[in-house]
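Can't attach files on this board, so I'm pasting raw text. These are the components:
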Amino acid sequence: MITIAVDAMGGDKAPVPEVEGAILAARQYGHRIILVGDRDEIHQRLDHHGFMAGGEHPIEVVHATERITMEDHAAKAARSKKGSSMHLCAHLVASGKADGYISAGNTGACMAIAKMVLGKVPGVDRPALSAVFPSHKGSPIVVLDVGANVDCEPAMLAQFGLMGQIYSRLVLKVKNPRVGLLSIGEEEHKGNALTRDVTPLLKDLALDFIGNVEGRDLFSGHADVIICDGFVGNVALKVAEGLAEMMSRMLKESLSATISSKIGYALSRSAFKDFKKRTDYSEHGGAPLLGVKGVCIICHGRSDANAIKNAVRVAGEFASSNMNQRIEEELREFAQAG
Amino acid sequence: MITIAVDAMGGDKAPVPEVEGAILAARQYGHRIILVGDRDEIHQRLDHHGFMAGGEHPIEVVHATERITMEDHAAKAARSKKGSSMHLCAHLVASGKADGYISAGNTGACMAIAKMVLGKVPGVDRPALSAVFPSHKGSPIVVLDVGANVDCEPAMLAQFGLMGQIYSRLVLKVKNPRVGLLSIGEEEHKGNALTRDVTPLLKDLALDFIGNVEGRDLFSGHADVIICDGFVGNVALKVAEGLAEMMSRMLKESLSATISSKIGYALSRSAFKDFKKRTDYSEHGGAPLLGVKGVCIICHGRSDANAIKNAVRVAGEFASSNMNQRIEEELREFAQAG
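---
Top answer:
Structure tokens for the assembled complex are below.
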């Protein structure tokens, strides 16, 4: 049985969605869940859902005395708040008591703690935060790095390509993932100093490198893995979030502006739900931090119970994938060949 | 009377939307238009619309013997195809025969030719391509650079801030434009080497610098001017385009999946049109190239007649704004103060 630790004190509305998501995941996937955080608050939420400890679906509670907030300075909190729910989650994985953990807390602190407590997979220079985007057709698209490393050397991006490709293959079950380099035109000469320097390195790797892709390919399905530095990736992610929010709001306003469109809205409500589900990031279950020795999934601070549930699913799939061993082996092969 | 030259051979479907857009603009704004390109093709399209040369709305045709395509290498075409419609447009502005020009052709070639033929406004190091985004509430948002300069020095971004602020004030009529620096978090320490180095420069300028903004602020309205290097800006622009396309397609599919939602779609059609208009880039009329000595508006290759018409409007507003003189003066003041 797979065991996933859930940081119950991470998100904006913690521990409400965390506890509900954990219950849903325990029921749906049959994983063992360890909820980490303030014991009283967690038990209150479990009671609210009528969930009995020691029942059919095993959920355990581990008490944490501290909590890292969104306002905390990431590096400082990682060093000083060693009794935090985030630290305890990472230690549960490092000691083998859990197979992976998820947190919807302060992203910077979460990355710092994961690197500090779990360490890096041998051969990896810098772990990378990876976002999974829905594509119009077919399988989801992995984009990395989306915020762990803002100023990147070419060799780091080559490793991102390798890690992303393995994740796509082993966890997202894409047979032969095509790897693209995020740039500003498809032709090889179009790009900046970094993309021009990383291109020959990517060509040397044992992966299906398809060359430059553009911003629109985050959704097109032309590539299964898209690599970029963490600054560009983070901007891209937040542009997409911002636009999706604005479009939804505008569409709602436009639709309710007239009576006939109000009727139209009512009639098309089920279609809207379907659409929301297909574009909803929470369905895709958080961002895996690739390259750390263990499984760490970082969720959006605004994650609801459904997003938490899906992150637990993704953590379970990642934990059973043998992914980190593959990264270690492929990096070793590449180093020996190079 | 304002005269705008229109490159009739630029876009993907040239000269069809160019000629139609020019006619619409001549009628709606009363500008004099010079259509530049293959004389026969242009006259054929003018005839198609029953447009009489020498009629009430003055449209002139200037023949060009060459044409730059999307497949042309930008710098090479700029140097070798000196008889192209793009070159002739720039020369019409340089010689004072037109007050500005627009082109929906090869963006790279268009920027190279504008810089070559028009030259730079005194004090400007690098002209910047500027996109105008619709915001949920209030005035449109200028983002620059979106592709003219991929590897930027801090001083270049500071100039972008100044130019963008003047454009927002004089052309978009925003009273006190707030200038934001595109980064990966609002706190000053969040960013990469470039954003950290440019922050003190922006603080020294005589503008309302509000610090870092994030990708979502391209649509939020928190800033009126957003500055970034041309690589990041171009990626952001294309992420937004790609997502908007995917969402529209998905929504249509979801809505037509059931009979009741088909009825819903029919009833809400007018609302959809309103929504489309509010999010349609073509309504905002192309991307001005700021910092060249003259007025040059670059349109998307897929521009329709409406987009061309709006680009002519924007070129006219830019030409009557005294914008380039303001840039020169403010840069001189800054250089003297620094």
